[in-house]
Every structure is written in C-alpha cells, then in structure tokens.
Amino acid sequence: MSEKKRRGGAGAGAASGSASKKPRVSTAASYAESLRSKLRPDASILATLRSLASACSKSKPAGSSSSASKALAAEDDPAASYIVVADQDSASVTSRINRLVLAAARSILSGRGFSFAVPSRAASNQVYLPDLDRIVLVRRESARPFANVATARKATITARVLSLVHAVLRRGIHVTKRDLFYTDVKLFGDQAQSDAVLDDVSCMLGCTRSSLHVVASEKGVVVGRLTFADDGDRIDCTRMGVGGKAIPPNIDRVSGIESDALFILLVEKDAAFMRLAEDRFYNRFPCIILTAKGQPDVATRLFLRRLKVELKLPVLALVDSDPYGLKILSVYMCGSKNMSYDSANLTTPDIKWLGVRPSDLDKYRVPEQCRLPMTDHDIKVGKELLEEDFVKQNEGWVKELETMLRTRQKAEIQALSSFGFQYLTEVYLPLKLQQQDWI
Amino acid sequence: MSEKKRRGGAGAGAASGSASKKPRVSTAASYAESLRSKLRPDASILATLRSLASACSKSKPAGSSSSASKALAAEDDPAASYIVVADQDSASVTSRINRLVLAAARSILSGRGFSFAVPSRAASNQVYLPDLDRIVLVRRESARPFANVATARKATITARVLSLVHAVLRRGIHVTKRDLFYTDVKLFGDQAQSDAVLDDVSCMLGCTRSSLHVVASEKGVVVGRLTFADDGDRIDCTRMGVGGKAIPPNIDRVSGIESDALFILLVEKDAAFMRLAEDRFYNRFPCIILTAKGQPDVATRLFLRRLKVELKLPVLALVDSDPYGLKILSVYMCGSKNMSYDSANLTTPDIKWLGVRPSDLDKYRVPEQCRLPMTDHDIKVGKELLEEDFVKQNEGWVKELETMLRTRQKAEIQALSSFGFQYLTEVYLPLKLQQQDWI
C-alpha cells in the first residue's frame, strides 16, 4: 500500500508535467491535488465510517420483511389490498402449486371446469406506497377460465408453466426464461407469452420469480470484505483478484453471508470497479464493492438486497453525474415498473448518493472539457425525475438535480481521471467519506 | 451426482407426461430420450477425451509464439514484411518508449524537429496469412512530423499518449481507454482519437495493448478444473459456485495456471454456461468452461489464448446454430479486423466446432417449432462466411454452413431444452464427446 502511495505521488508529479501549456487544467489539477492535504489519517475516517455502520445496524432494517409487514399492518386489511410476493422455499412453492392444481381438479370433477384467478399486473394497478417506499400491486384478480374461447389458450399456458415450474423445483435445478420457453415452443408461440404467464404465476403463488427457480442472467461482480457460500463453495471476496467474483444468478444458492465491512459501495460502472479492485480500496476502508456494469440486472439487485438485509450496512452509491445515474439508483431503490409485484424482494431502500453529484463538478473543479453538455433527452429525463416520489422525498437530491438541470452539464465518474488515474481511490472517495458527504 | 441423476430421471418422466396431446413433439422427445441409452459408461468417454487431450498436447502448439516465429522464418525477411506485436513486460515497454523519446529529443536538438514513424492500420494493409491462420499488418509506415500543420495535432496526441502510458506503467496500475481519454479531453477532443492513437502506439512499440496496461472491460466468466492466480490471489474455479469467476481484465496479472482438465469448453451464452455450472459438468468430464456471454471481449479472448497456449488443451465450442455463432468462433480464431495488428495475441486457432451444428437439428430431431427461419440478413451473413478463409479451410464447416443455408433454419443452444432442462448436460454433450462429434 505504502509502496503504491509513493508511486502515486511520483505519478501525480508526472501528470502535471505539461502544466505550462494548459493553464486552466493545471489550476484545476493543482487545486484537486491540494485536496489531498485535507485528508485526515485513515484512522479518523474509519471512526466516521464505524459510527455510520453502527447507526445503520441499529436503525430498523429498512425494507426488510418485518418493516414491510409493520407498514402494511397499519392499513385496513392489507393482505386483501396489496399483493406483496415473498421469497419461498421450494417445498412451500411446490405445495402451493399442488393446492392450486387440486382445486382445479376438484372443480373439474364437480363439472364446473377449471379457472385460474390471476392478479392484474397492469400499470394502472401499480401504486407507490410511501410507507414501504416501493411500488406494489393492488389486489385485483381476473378469472382465466379454460372453458372460454378468449382465455382457453392462456389457461393452458398457465397450467403448463405451473407444471414446468413444479418439475424444475422437484429436480432442484434452476433454469432461465429462455429454457422455459423452449420446452414448449408450439404452445407458447413466442417468449413474451411464457414470460408474461411466468409473472402471472409468480403473483398467483405469492412468491418471487427466483423462488420459482427461474433465474435471470447475471452480469454483476463483487469484491471486498465479504465471504459467502455459492452453491456450497466458500467464496472469499478479498481473494478474487481484480476480476472479482461473478454474482450468482440463483440467489437461493447463496448462504452464510459474513463480512467485517463498514459499508457497501455500489458502483455504476465497470471501469471504476476495476480501479477500486486493483487498488484494493476495501483493504484501506473495509467495504464491499459491487457493480452491475450499467443497468442493474435482477441477480445483482437481489444480491445487494440480501447483503443489506443480512449485514445491515449502509449502502453508498457511486454513479455518473447524469440523469441516467439517478435512474440506476431508482431501479435499485424502488424497482422497475414491470417487476413491481416483486419489488419488495428486489429493492434496497435507503441508498445514499455519495457521488459523482452535480455539485461535485464545481466543488472538485472538474475541468470544463471533462464535463459534457446535457442533450435534450437528458434534460427531459432529468425533469421527469424531479417529479418522481423517490427524488422528491429527499431534499438534497432535488437540489442536486436542479443544479444539474440549471448548469445543463453532466459528467462521468471517469472525469476524475483528469486529476490522475488514482485520484478516485486516493483523494476523491476518502475525502467524501471523511466529510460524510453523502445525501 | 448420483442423487441428481436419479432426480433427473424422475424429471424426464414428468416432462413427457403431457405427451399424448402433442404427438410430434412427443416422438421427437422419445427419440431424444432414446439417445440416452446410447451413452457408454463415463469411463469410456473419458478415455476418448484423454486421447484427444494427449494428441493436442503433443501437436505443435498452434498459434503460440514459437509457431508464429517458425512460420515467419520461412518467408523472406519477415520482420520487415509484417508487424506482429507481442506481449512485453513493463520494463521492456518503458525502455522502448524511452528510446523513442530520446530519438525525438536528439532530432529536435539537431534542429530537425521530431516525427514519429507510424505503421498503417488501414484495411488495405491487412492480410490473412494462411501459415499463421491469422490476419496481420503489412509493414508500411508513414511519417507523423510535428512541424507540419496536417500532422502537428496527431503528433502531439501521440507524444501525450506515450507519456501517459509511461506513467501508467511506472505506477504499476491498469487503466481503461476511457480513463486515458479523460486525462486530457481538451487535447484528444473525443475518445475515438485517443483510442486510435493508442492503437498506433501499440504498433509503433511492437507490443500488445494489454502490455500498455490499457485494459478492456471484462464480461467473461469461467468455472471448472482450473486454478490460477489473479493479482496474487489463488483462484480455484471448481469452487466458484454457479456464478463462476469473472475473467480478469488485465491478463498480465494472471499467473500460475494449472489444470487437470482434458479439454476447454467454450460456450457462446450465459444460459448454457449456467446449466453446465449448476450441473457441475466439469466434475463428470474434467474440463474448463468459459463464456464471454455473446460477442467475445478482448479480456476473454486473451484468457482463452493463455489457457490454450499454457495448458495445450483442445478447445471445443458450443454455439448457436446460426451465422452469428460461427462469427463468434471466427473472432476467437482469427480476430476482428480492427485489432488485426494484435491478432497474434488475441486469437486461438484450432477451435473445434462441437455444436450446435446445423446437421444436429435433424440428427437430434429438434422439433420444427424450436427451429427458427433464417432472416435475409442471416442468409447474407451466412453466404459471406462461406467466402471466408477460416471457413473454407475446413471442409466440415463448409458442409455445415451449406446445410444451414439450404434448410434456411437456425436454432439456439437452448432449443435442446425442449427435451428436458438437463438434456444438454446429461445426453447431448456426453454423446457428442463419446462420438468425437466435433469438426
């Protein structure tokens, strides 16, 4: 570490070698470099982080099932009002399927044919619950009878998907949506249909899609102060080199999560992740670093939520300073509209926005040429975000977003490289942590 | 394993439960199931694989630097004719940069200004060398003088990139192209310019881009009978659960590669990878399984090549039966046009096409509805592939491609799921291996 630091100093010197030619950059660079001297010893920053972590572990576990049920209990007859699906083990899902099928069989034997009661997942049926800080489905079911020309095919598909899920659970394996589709292309027609019915089945059974053992492809990676078992294999994420550990697609195979980290650092992009991993940032400030490499996939969201719920650590986010970066935060925090029924299990409320924030651009004097003008589309998305509940709830976020829209400038995390390749890990992040500069 | 197998049997029975309703699928399914009985005991298949592996390790290591230099030695004055860049350690790259800069300084002091000699990377300058089975650059350099309005800016960018690479190497870190761009946005203007000059610098110095410590983002994953060190951390890929180990972006941090595998299984897609990982296919047939999740990225290509060169194992490929699957094979085997100068270090010649091949569709009686009609674009790409040298060299490949174009049908790996979710790992692949059905 100290060796690297010394080399770091030399490199910074080299970087300012061409200073005389570009005065403005040089001023910004030397100011940026001067911030290094503001850094207190690591021990002092660690003390700050420790109090953050302990405050977080004492607070009620936001978004955990206990808070969900508490919030729901405050309303009238909550189970009847909203659909909140939950993780279920295979035995429980299997017996739910059995019950459904037995009911259908009984109905057929009594001469009434059979019909499924399917919750509506329409957008008009999705509401944001401030208490839960999540989008949920209003309970409104429609009948899907087999003995009706309009619904016969869908009822058949539903029965088929139920039977396929049953087979998958019984074998104790996991499959993808695509696998499911290919088991009966003739019936399903196209994958959108089997996917849609899979979501129906998930709501009907009141369990998450991952409980059905139908998994999404993963692209997330994790490194840092974390150990867990992936399908029984013990994984030590401090020993995963620079590449990191691929986040498992099937969250139910993850167990035995342990960590001595003080926080979770959620990173939007691969390049910043690589910088943090190579510099072993987590050894200087004990943390777990993860990224979905852009738009968050389901596996990464499930994994983050598991970490948050089990370890009760604060989550700090490092994203680009643009509307898209905020959008990504919103997906982690509130879920996406088309998975709303599953949102309780996919979302991690209470993520702190560490950076890069619009106000950082001036605060750290990011050179003009490293900022990018916002496009019309960016501005449109930014304005829409201002209307979103998850933004409006946080005064600090509103201010930052307003700053972004006023200056019409955005910047990527990598813009910090203009002060040196390791500025992110050596100055920017430590200073942010020291100043508790998250909102 | 045996537990899973037993469950497998039960599941297969369940899958054929709805057989009476769909006779055609059922016939195909029962035929597919009958292939299971053709499987000989694993010990016999393993013997086949062992002889394949030993044949491969005895053959001259195709594509390794020794074969490259041997092939080149056969031509007249090869170094003068072609540019073949190679991996270099940091000290060597640094001293090459120093020599370039000293030459420039001497030239300036003698009053002649300075100029870089930059190899042309134009498409017209790229040739396919059958002996090497690779695309290389013809050596043709153009001067890039500073004292010329037309080239002054590019010469400045070149000098700047040389100095940045020097700083990166001295610090012993790795950066992305994007990081490099952000260090001097004002000079570079846009990233395409710094990227292009980076490629120039790579050719000028005669070393690979990864030797410059400028890395690509990784998306590949690996599991199976492989251990290696990633930045000093010992990684055992049999203990990476279902998620696998993310392939490191910086290949020069990979060392100590060891394996008791008999072959490398290169998989096009994530879903098939997951199936193989969850079923721990590598424990039944010792192998290393890797995927780039679609279009191969540079990190995965470098990693595959390292495995092939160091372990001298046969590489068997499992891709979709469509022109795109073959395209992916071609990128692994011959490189892509815009990285031709680096092709020697990125390509893995002699990959065997295991499946899914056009002839498999009938051989395994893949149901009609699981096959897809080729689009006009597919057919165009397929016809172009027929003209490519790497296809023409392999009679078997030509036949398969002709079959594809004649039937105008394509299929994904997952089409095999129509015979059961684990058909791929339990029947298709074992039978392929037993019958040595690769070309």
TrEMBL record, chains A, B:
Residues 263-433 form the Topoisomerase 6 subunit A/Spo11 TOPRIM domain. Gene3D superfamilies: 3.40.1360.10, Winged helix-like DNA-binding domain superfamily/Winged helix DNA-binding domain. GO terms for biological process: DNA topological change; meiotic DNA double-strand break formation; meiotic DNA double-strand break processing; reciprocal meiotic recombination. Keywords: DNA-binding, Isomerase, Magnesium, Metal-binding, Nucleotide-binding, Nucleus, Topoisomerase. Mg(2+) binds at residues 268, 320. Residues 218-254 form the Type II DNA topoisomerase VI subunit A all-beta domain. Residues 1-31 are annotated as: Disordered. Belongs to the TOP6A family. This is DNA topoisomerase 6 subunit A. It comes from Oryza barthii. The lineage of its organism: Eukaryota, Viridiplantae, Streptophyta, Embryophyta, Tracheophyta.
